[in-house]
Amino acid sequence: MSFEVDVSITRGSRRIAARFEAGPGITALFGRSGAGKTSVLDMIAGLARPDEGRIAVDGRALFDAAAGIDLRPEARGCGYVFQDYRLFPHMSVEGNLRYGWRLAAPDARWIDFEQVVEFLGLAGLLAARPRRLSGGEAQRVAIGRALLSGARFLLMDEPLSSLDAARREEIMRVIERIRDELALPILYVSHDRREVERLAGQIVEMD
Amino acid sequence: MSFEVDVSITRGSRRIAARFEAGPGITALFGRSGAGKTSVLDMIAGLARPDEGRIAVDGRALFDAAAGIDLRPEARGCGYVFQDYRLFPHMSVEGNLRYGWRLAAPDARWIDFEQVVEFLGLAGLLAARPRRLSGGEAQRVAIGRALLSGARFLLMDEPLSSLDAARREEIMRVIERIRDELALPILYVSHDRREVERLAGQIVEMD
Amino acid sequence: QVPRGPLVLAAASLQESLNAAADTWAAQGHPRPVLSFAASSALARQIENGAPADLFLSADEEWMDHVVKAPGGRIKPGTRISLLTNSLALIAPAQSSIRLTIAPGFPLAAALGLNGRLAMGQVASVPAGKYGREALIALRVWSSVEGRVAGADSVRSAMALVSRGEAPLGIVYATDARADRKVRVVGIFPANSHKPITYPLARLSASTNPDAEGFRRFLASPQGKAIFRAYGFGTR
Amino acid sequence: MALAPDNISPEEWGIIWLSLKVSAAAMVATLPVGFALAWALARGRFPGRVLLDGLVHLPLVLPPVVTGWLLLIVFGGTGVAGRWLAAMGMPVMFRWTGAALAASVMALPLMVRAIRLSLESVDRRLEAAARTLGASPMRVFVTITLPLALPGVLAGMVLGFARSLGEFGATITFVSNIPGETQTLPLAIYAALQVPGQEGIVTRLALISVGLSLVALVASEVLTRRMGMRAHVL
Amino acid sequence: MALAPDNISPEEWGIIWLSLKVSAAAMVATLPVGFALAWALARGRFPGRVLLDGLVHLPLVLPPVVTGWLLLIVFGGTGVAGRWLAAMGMPVMFRWTGAALAASVMALPLMVRAIRLSLESVDRRLEAAARTLGASPMRVFVTITLPLALPGVLAGMVLGFARSLGEFGATITFVSNIPGETQTLPLAIYAALQVPGQEGIVTRLALISVGLSLVALVASEVLTRRMGMRAHVL
Ligand SMILES: Nc1ncnc2c1ncn2[C@@H]1O[C@H](COP(=O)(O)OP(=O)(O)OP(=O)(O)O)[C@@H](O)[C@H]1O
Ligand SMILES: Nc1ncnc2c1ncn2[C@@H]1O[C@H](COP(=O)(O)OP(=O)(O)OP(=O)(O)O)[C@@H](O)[C@H]1O
Ligand code: MOO
Ligand SMILES: [Mg+2]
Ligand SMILES: [Mg+2]
Prior knowledge:
The complex is a heteropentamer, with two copies of chain A, one copy of chain C and two copies of chain D. By secondary structure, chain A is of the alpha/beta class.
């Protein structure tokens, strides 16, 4: 099992619950706006604490209310592409990209800086501050930063929403290679049926 | 002519130029990430000052370097859906929606508050602060705020990128009605070919 | 290393005269004393709290009494003397034409005019203010001017109010008045209208400087006293 | 308890009331000036900006007595501004208004810094968004900039009020210590400190000061909380 | 020009140097304490938070002489902390270190407020992002929070430095007015003010103070600019 998730969390007066087990490859998280997809990703990443339940990735328990397990975010090893990017405004694009890279154990890294810069088309932007990036440029940096962090699994929250078809195609090909060559579990949120059908081995619907 | 645009602007060391004339209806602005689409919208809205050129909408000159015309943003009457939403964090969703509405002359308003809340599905969120909204919810508020401002024309920067298919469909139908019934000029940025082909009467490619 | 002179804590109003005395002492081949000028109250509290200094020259006896009584005995017994005396002056701006003769019941309030203030040290706390109030009470004019007093934090501030023309009259020490050309002495208060104004000197029990006692004796010597007299002080 | 209200003498109540009046007046008077200066320093690009910045910091850098002395020269009965104010029917010399003026000047740099810090962190893109929605620059200021800078404004007001409550040196030098007119808490405390054996009174009055400032602090915290000002831009 | 360097006497250079030493030491010493307090007040949720806030504001609210008196009682030769420090070989009584301590205490509330204001405007979502990238809370603090709060830290340092340069009341009450040891610029100015006819010296020394603070201001502006700290989160 790549992702084993059975959690619930209270957001304001709402209760968001999700329960699924996913095999290897890419799992798409599908659901209407406000269904709770980002909330689920946050719980897996350790940024939101479930009221109860259990989360495991590749058999490794990240959270288990019953067993008292609650790994800290930095110990979970996730590469999270945030829906709102969250680039560090005080660092250059290169600084952002290298942030997780520097912290990763050398043997945990599975992709090169140069490789990432190249396929994301960031070469001309390395010295730029995030503030002046276009929407799509910022999104690509957010993807690159997550890939470079030497993560054991990826959480991608609508990672291609602001990109044109050509870029999208290129990046999807890289994601497919990551899926196939590295067998990294990937949880992928998208509203695009075609994207999802092409990438994902399984689809989890939320409501 | 709905949009007459012939401008150029310097961004860092790059020069972004655009030149097009568009007939009535929806004009799609198409181009790869970083091509300068948002920059063009900013210039039309009066948020970025072109180095030279001319901008007119429905025959009304908003900017004309040669004639010394440069209307202030608040005098241009545009309804701008920002790529990065830009909701006011210190106001509720309702406060955000009503911001432009309150400032519009009563006879300039062409849509009801209740109507907007309904078709954007914001009824349960009116009291919420923007901070806790999901990505798609925030995007819908940004659309509603622009529609309610009594604008003479709309600038929409990837307004549906974070929405699920059903919502998208609903909102597209409203946009079509605005196009057909009100004959409002709309400049529409999107990466989705199908969306663009369905909505837009003409397509402007940028490079 | 050059040996350091004794550390002398002294009332701020003694600045010029004591500096002159220290210069003379140093010219005789001694290390120059280090002089720290502040309000007597501040200095007394420092001594009370264990200040490592040598001599204390206070502007009033009350604070010296306070230090003497402080637990632990802050003053070396037998070293306290009343070194200097002073008198109180009624002053006006140099260009003022006010004429008054200080005597019981003299028309001080009238001289202040309709809105004029009488500048003094704060009567509750600043020594010059306390003496001034005592004198005015003795002369039976206090009740007529009590509400007109502007209390400054030091004699010098009171004098500044007069020299800048903000107050038509003020009460300061005679020594202060003669140092400022922008004020004019209207009259000197009779010595019997207030307690004698004296400046006590003593050596602290914390004193370790070998020159401390020597400098104390120098200040009390005829030569030392002559220096203070040159600045308008009286000596005993 | 030594500080129960019925243990406070009428004279002390008078001093408390005067201190509150002076500090509140100083805070209110400084606010518009402080905001305008903060705005100019945060947003303005004009020659002499650094000089203006320096000028604003002056009361912080100079010993308070010097500030009081400068006030005396400018606002005293013989000073230019002093004569003008007196002619306008607002004399400050030896008046509580003068004490408020002194407190105001001393509080200014603190207020300006706090407000400026908040103004500089306001996201200009939100202001731009408001413009496209039809808001004039003035309205953008009132509905967007000001509310977003509110934490700084509140912090500045608290700092200014607290500083005014504690202001001593400039006040006594400028308007001296006149009971009922300019004798604020610090002046009363100072007077008591200069008399041997009045430590009890000093402690009493100091505790009252501290109490007043605590009330102001709590009020500002509640306000900040209520306005939910910790929110960020999405 | 009256203030050309060769017009400044060796004695005045000594005073300037001492003032700089005291102010710089005060600023450096206050920074970690001020930051920790600002952090606790901005982020902490513990009982007694408001009380701590009040305590921090104390030196602002109390007249400086009272603060000096309290320092004297606690850090004086007979005070608990004073004896302990002396035993540790770091006596403060009548030393320049005591002047720095007084300045430090007076600067604390200003520093805490400025830093707190900036800390409160740091976007917590960026900190969360850094955690997912493998950064420990400590590293997040150093690489994300601290740089993003830098404008406040710098503003706090400027305020603290300026306040230290101008500090008078607490210093003279605590460590007296000893030439070469505790006589900083404000105390020298006070001494000159006590002697009639020395307005020239007062003006001179005051101008020197102002000059020093201007240099500090310009330095901080340049730093802020260079760090490009006005940027916002995308
Ligand atoms: N603090 C809160 N209080 C109340 N409701 C909240 C809070 N935080 C989030 N929510 C709500 O929880 C719901 C789930 O949010 P979430 O961001 O997980 O949605 P999502 O599936 O990612 O949506 P989208 O596709 O639009 O990004 C939303 O309706 C949101 O408004
Ligand atoms: N201040 C600046 N300095 C240098 N380059 C800048 C600056 N501001 C914007 N740019 C660059 O200008 C280009 C155009 O940006 P713009 O936001 O208009 O692109 P876009 O077409 O909207 O892209 P996207 O589809 O990714 O949103 C981008 O490459 C961006 O990095
Ligand atoms: O530092 Mo002051 O002189 O007491 O306000
Ligand atoms: Mg989401
Ligand atoms: Mg764009």
